[in-house]
Amino acid sequence: MFGHRKGAFTGAVADRVGRFQQADKGTLFLDEVGDMPLALQAKILRALQERVIEPVGDPRERKVDVRVIAATNKNLLEAVANKEFREDLYYRLNVFPIPLPALRERVEDIAPLARHFAHTLGATAGKRISGFSPQALQAMANYSWPGNIRELQNCVERATIVAKGAVIEENDLPDYLFTPAPADSAPGVALSAGASVPSDLEAALAEVEKAYILSALQQSNGVQAAAAQLIGISERSFWYRLKKLGIQVDKIIR
């Protein structure tokens, strides 16, 4: 955040400019400020209140003029009451609050966000996705998205992988979108029979993706071009997935 001078501590082999100095005369975005340690909160408060910072190992103060935008998924007033967040920093940050509703409360945003993710993820994976079928869009609109935008992004990434054409169809979407939530589960959480909510959604989706690729490799006897064709993606996209998931083909076909 504040930078350091060369030799200030072990491993400080060169001067480093901190984020506040980098953002001088501009804007600094602080994400998940509710998870900030108390010691850092005090330093952030001083930087905001006095507009000065002190890099580690440098006795000189540096003036900074920075606009700060902060975000959190926590209730900071509760954190203040629990002595987990400084009250003075809370009021210093809470100058112009912008509440952002959960994704399930702004259904109209689901389609444009999904199209954006499909375009960018498709380009990264070497696939050209032109959009979604009306049935796929309706299925996504009917889901409650407890994981908000990150869950939507992972859902679209999975659909991009398995889609066989340029349009993502309803059957390309993960099964959990169509599983009704049990009566005794929390609102908005969809579970398959006997399953529990994954503690790490990205890891769970990566396992699904990995299972598809391993199955295709087994069926193609390790021929990557054939495996890519089986699941409807380009060889370039298939190679990207292998590298991302750490799959070694030679170990699969032995």
How would you describe the overall organization of this protein?
The chain is globular, with a radius of gyration of 24 Å. A hairpin with an 8-residue loop joins strand 4 and strand 5 (62-63). The protein contains eleven helices and eight strands. The strands form four sheets. A two-stranded antiparallel ribbon has the order 1-2. A two-stranded parallel sheet has the order 3-6. Strands 4-5 form a two-stranded antiparallel ribbon. The chain has helices at 19-22, 38-50, 76-81, 87-93, 110-125, 134-142, 148-162, 201-219, 224-230, 235-245, 249-252, and strands spanning 3-4, 16-17, 27-30, 52-53, 62-63, 67-70, 131-132, 167-168. By secondary structure, it is mainly α. The protein folds into three domains: 3-93, Rossmann fold (3-Layer(aba) Sandwich); 102-197, Helicase, Ruva Protein, domain 3 (Orthogonal Bundle); 199-254, Homeodomain-like (Arc Repressor Mutant, subunit A), CATH 1.10.10.
